[in-house]
Write a structure and sequence with these properties.
Layout: H1 3-26, H2 35-53, H3 57-79, H4 84-104, E1 114-115, H5 122-140, H6 143-153, H7 155-160, H8 165-191, E2 193-194, H9 201-214, H10 220-235, H11 243-257, H12 265-271
Antiparallel strand pairs: 1-2
């Protein structure tokens, strides 16, 4: 495989993890625009652990996921007081706060960035992406996902039947933050250089777009959205300066045709054979 296609596959795998981090939170009816901040935490912490401390990359990713997940839980508690656009703005503010912190944090390079990480292969990135995707799909097939959907559909009714909506929502924030941190650590070790601009608001928008375009009701939708966002601009390069305008027009057209995204639960029920009663 050429370096070009390997780079595209790596970008798809990292974007898939970022999209899944948003998907987990969105499944509870919350929209986070600050997952790039959690990605930045994972990127810088993983890089520090591998370059300065000397931990293996896998151990560093696990530590970064645990730390970022804990921060996600801490952010999730006050975020429960907000709904809709107010929650989105609060998480956006968190992401920008994290970016600004690393912009001025000179021990990790500040605005000049940080380097020295060892490059990880495309296969290693996809191993993590596949593990996270499969785990989420297994959870979707379990009673836990029914509780998550109940909280998303009607939080009051879910509470009346004994579900702890607070625990479910905060847990989703923590899990989403942990997955975003893994994406950040893999991004840092794939590009072997990071700077605060890598984890700006636009990165969070890419995650949300991948979920919306691919389908926000099934985990594989994040994969479809990640492939679309990475591959489509490459195929439009022949349009030169107009390729991003054409890309935006195609995305709008697709949303008009399939408002629910490329994949949804109805499509999966139609495609999979029905079991006998």
């Amino acid at each position: 495989m050429s370096m070009y296609y390997a780079g595209l596959l790596s970008d798809i795998g990292i974007l898939l993890l970022g999209a899944l981090s948003v998907y987990i939170i969105l499944a509870t009816g919350q929209l986070s625009l600050g997952n790039a901040g959690f990605m930045g935490i994972g990127a810088y912490l993983t890089s520090h652990l591998t370059v300065v401390v000397g931990l293996p990359i896998t151990a560093a990713l696990i530590v970064a996921a645990l730390v970022s997940g804990s921060i996600g839980i801490a952010v999730g508690f006050p975020a429960l007081r907000l709904r809709g656009i107010y929650l989105a703005m609060a998480t956006l503010g968190f992401g920008e706060m994290v970016r600004s912190f690393f912009q001025n944090f000179t021990p990790m390079g500040g605005s000049e960035g940080f380097h020295g990480m060892h490059h990880v292969s495309t296969g290693y990135i996809w191993a993590w992406a596949a593990i996270v995707l499969v785990v989420i799909m297994l959870i979707e097939a379990s009673p836990i996902w029914l509780e998550i959907r109940a909280v998303r559909d009607d939080e009051t009714a879910a509470g009346l039947v004994g579900l702890n909506a607070t625990q479910i929502k905060v847990g989703a924030f923590g899990c989403g933050a942990a997955v975003a941190a893994i994406a950040g650590g893999l991004f840092a070790h794939h590009h072997v250089y990071i700077e605060p601009g890598n984890f700006s608001f636009e990165r969070s928008i890419d995650f949300v777009l991948a979920v919306i375009l691919g389908g926000s009701t099934v985990a594989p939708g994040a994969l479809a959205g990640a492939v679309l966002l990475v591959i489509l601009p490459e195929y439009l390069r022949f349009l030169a300066d107009w390729r991003f305008a054409a890309f935006g027009a195609l995305l709008i057209a697709m949303l008009l045709v399939r408002r629910q995204g490329l994949l949804d639960r109805a499509l999966f029920r139609f495609a999979l054979p029905r079991s006998k009663a």
